[in-house]
Fold these 2 entries.
Entry 1:
Amino acid sequence: MSDPQTRQILRQSLRQQRRQLSYEQQKHAAIGLASHLPDHSLIHHASQIALYIANDGEIDPHILAEVLSARGKQLALPIMHPFNDEQLLFQRFRPGQQLMNNALGIPEPELSKPDLVPLQELDVILLPLVGFDPHGNRLGMGGGFYDRTLGGYTPAQRPTLIGLAHSCQQVEKLMAAEWDVPIDAVATGEQLIRFDR
Ligand SMILES: Nc1ncnc2c1ncn2[C@@H]1O[C@H](COP(=O)(O)OP(=O)(O)OP(=O)(O)O)[C@@H](O)[C@H]1O
Ligand SMILES: [Mg+2]
């Protein structure tokens, strides 16, 4: 499953499955995520946490963001780098803050240099994914943004990476490409799954 065509076919199928989830299923998943994840030790001990604005049927972390913010966590959102369009930057964010659509139509805060958070200061990145397997391999939307941004750091330098997903996004096996950055855990609406490596 490492050749680009097979990855693309799998992406389309998984994206379609999550887009077909009903409003009620999405709401249930978002509430479930916000109920169990804040108490998990990986999040409980974190003070700076990046997350994302849901798009394309992704599990929605906006209720989670409100819970985390109420518990005093500092939150950040990814923004597309203004000069290097292949990299992500992370910028401080408070739930309810005004956002603007970026070139991909995804809402992000307006770039403000003093509010940028160096990646190494983040304790956890909650990142979206299209598919994951039981070994922590991750399939994203295909832009390579997270891989390129995270790939410049050693596993020890990187924040803890927790993918957020609907359980229907789990597959038996993903063949990782050499640039794919594996994740440490996945959180669904029901549970957190940690990967040993
Ligand atoms: N570290 C890297 N160095 C060079 N090219 C990279 C790197 N990471 C990703 N790419 C490029 O990005 C393309 C997309 O990567 P991939 O299919 O793994 O995306 P993805 O993991 O689904 O997306 P994302 O990381 O945005 O969630 C690859 O074809 C590859 O050319
Ligand atoms: Mg990848």
Note: The helical segments are 4-19, 23-36, 41-44, 62-70, 145-151.
Entry 2:
Amino acid sequence: MVDVNSTVMQVTISAGRLPQFREILRAGTMFSVSGFDVSRCAQNFRLTDSSLMIRFNESTSFQELTEPDSPLPDEAFRFRNHSELIGLANTNTQLPDIIGEILSVRSTVCDPPEEKNRVMVTLKLDSDETVTLSFFDAQAVAFHKQLKTMRVDPKVMVITSINPKIVGGRLFLNATSGTHVYFDKKTRAGDALFYKLVARDTGLPSAAPLLRSYAKVETMTIADLSSFIVSAESQEIDFLCTGKVVRVDTEKGWCYVACSKCSKKLQRTESAFTCGVCNNPHAVGALRYRVEMAIADDTAEGTFVWFDGVLTKLHSIRASEAAQMLAEDGVNPEDTRLPPFIADMEGRTYTFQVRVTAFNFTEHHKTFTITRIAEDHGRLTEDGVGSDGDGDDDDDNPNIKTPPAADDQGGTSKARKKTDAGTSNVVKKARAG
Ligand SMILES: [Zn+2]
């Protein structure tokens, strides 16, 4: 609630008393309130700048005012700019509001909605910085449906109570259970930005509908890919990325001996191979590629894993043949140096398909599996779609070792100072809800 002095305070009503008030609790309504308790706000996930909050008790009187005789402000948002959001990121202290121009919306919501859902909105803030805002599950579905029913794509979005996070040095905003969305002219703040944008418009028709589902294979930047798996619910989905190999991780080797029955990694004993999965102490082994590389585009860097099917196809040489080439006396193939054609991948740019699986959503598993490759940084070749190749690669997945991903989580945020909320500009909102 907001008063005539533009002071915004959080109000809580216990569930037991809610039926008494629920009917008249409508956004935009004016009330006179008397006989309530005042207590301190929790210090985390704060929805207002005030350190106090109002609690309705059994003697609270709550009367609707129908005469518009009060100079109450129309609305009150706690907009934060890009650098303030960075200051708040990962602190969980404030759930601020933002306003921005909608550049694109991507959604995993299908019709009818399946279990795990996510919508990512790219917004341009006042300072021209773009940020990614994510909705999850029921909120994602509701947002998707709301956009779908709109006749014209909205331009402006006001979003309340978002939780800023920094991941891999980039700012991401997550919707919370308290998040409300207002499009275009639904708010005064939105209205002002809307007309500013319309005035700037070139008059060209807009290129494509705003809301795009993640197609079977959607192009993604590596930063968006990293953000997709952060705090998202587990799901299986493919994306297309284009990036340059920054370095090949030589520490992790380039191949392993796989069980010819189940493709899992075999344990080398003195004279034989053991497969723990098949429970076979004398398993037949086959050499398979597995190479980790750091690949970057101009948004971020990620760790990607190339498996046997993709690398065999790319270089037209099997891992066992490569091992023959490099064979050294008394050295196991998996311990030999990198085949030159793999070392040569460093510095090259590839367009490749990435499969995000449930595996990517477990903590610290920040490697992405490359499932297909465009031979020459262009279109994917159709024969790369082979289902057997993909299947093989999936089998390999449980062998992926955990990359040292923990470091890129906190570094940036720790280095930043928390913004003093008291000095920020606050726009007030009168309408509850
Ligand atoms: Zn096996």
Note: The pocket of zinc ion is lined by residues 259, 261-262, 264, 275, 277-278, 283 (CB under 6 Å).
